[in-house]
Write a structure and sequence with these properties.
12 strands; elongated
Length: 347
């Protein structure tokens, strides 16, 4: 009878330290991206570790540090351009800080499967970023033990951002101030003669879409432009395409379309050009929101309100690191702004 092979003995950090002629602490720092260690020493330790086939025992480390080095992300979509670009950038930034990521996708109604919540609790993440409003702090409070979730908010009034929560479970916030970008967009379209504005909305439950509509109404009223025509959408190209056809063939049309996101703006532009035979921007001006990578493509060359993805990712990472440094701190917040990127769909 052939006996099964004996399990190979795991290389220890002590062996790596002795071989590299460094301390045990230095080995630990070499595998921690945020730790202070000379680059040449880190390189020597990592070289020895590769030769000895050593990898840190993350489970053992988490028992000592009480940190899992895992960050959960709850997203409504992984395929749309904005979400995929943000997930990619955030994952890269977190890996540079020594974190691995766990991705959880909501149902089509943006609620969370109870089984996924149970899985999340089992992983004991250091932090959870919720990119959907439907999975609120009250829901996560029942499954997160020490992690404080992070939510993205869009304050009604930029002057009132950063207000501390006084009731309910503790959560941290990244606040996106949108008024400046929307003011710039409306001023530009109005300056090129636009008077009849349509707002191509995102899906009805989206806080971002609701707040963009609110600010658009506010800015238009301040500039004497009256009320925008609200066109139902859901952030997708096909819905936007069909909605703009209805706006012009059934409704009275518009001379400016403000879309809740860039993909919706693409759908609007193609409907105007290819079905309605209208010129952009000569007949209708179009502005999007987000400034995804595809916005600068020559076929669209979209004027859009930019959320700086690098700034957004850095702010989210700072919130995670600040919370881990001070677990008992009251609600933390970071703030980023928006600005208009002018291309060729307005003037």
């Amino acid at each position: 009878m052939i006996e099964p092979p004996k399990a190979a003995r795991r290389t220890t950090a002590d062996l790596v330290a002795r071989t590299a002629n460094v301390s045990r602490v230095a080995v630990s720092r070499a595998f921690n991206p945020g730790a202070s260690i000379k680059p040449e020493k880190r390189d020597r330790i990592l070289k020895v570790a590769r030769e000895l086939n050593y990898t840190p025992d993350m489970a053992a480390r988490s028992l000592v540090t009480r940190r899992s080095h895992l960050v959960g992300m709850i997203v409504p979509d992984v395929c749309s351009p904005w979400e995929s670009q943000e997930i990619d950038a955030l994952t890269t930034a977190l890996q540079a800080e020594g974190f691995a990521t766990l991705l959880f996708k909501t149902r089509t109604d943006h609620s969370m499967d109870e089984r996924l919540l149970t899985y999340m609790k089992g992983f004991n993440p250091d932090s959870v970023i919720a990119f959907t409003e439907n999975v609120g702090p009250q829901t996560l409070a029942h499954v997160l033990e020490r992690a404080v979730p992070i939510y993205v908010g869009y304050p009604h009034d930029d002057a009132r951002h950063g207000a501390q929560e006084t009731e309910g479970p503790l959560f941290d916030r990244l606040e996106v101030l949108m008024r400046e970008g929307i003011e710039q967009a409306v001023a530009l379209m109005q300056g090129y003669g636009a008077r009849r504005f349509a707002y191509l909305a995102g899906y009805r439950e989206s806080l971002a879409s609701v707040e963009r509509e609110h600010l658009l109404r506010t800015v238009m009223a301040e500039r004497g432009l009256g009320e925008p025509i609200v066109v139902k959408g859901d952030y997708t190209y096909d819905t936007a395409f069909a909605a703009v056809l209805d706006l012009f063939r059934v409704g009275d049309g518009a001379d400016a379309i403000f879309a809740a996101n860039d993909v919706g703006a693409f759908g609007a532009i193609d409907a105007l050009r290819h079905e309605l035979k209208l010129a952009v921007p000569q007949d209708v001006k179009v502005v999007g929101f987000d400034d995804i990578n595809q916005a600068h493509w020559r076929s669209y060359d979209l004027t859009t309100i930019k959320i700086d993805l690098d700034q957004r990712v850095r702010a989210l990472v700072r919130l995670i690191l600040r919370r881990l440094k001070d677990p008992l701190a009251p609600s933390l917040s970071e703030t980023i702004g928006t600005k208009l990127v002018v291309r060729r769909t307005v003037g």
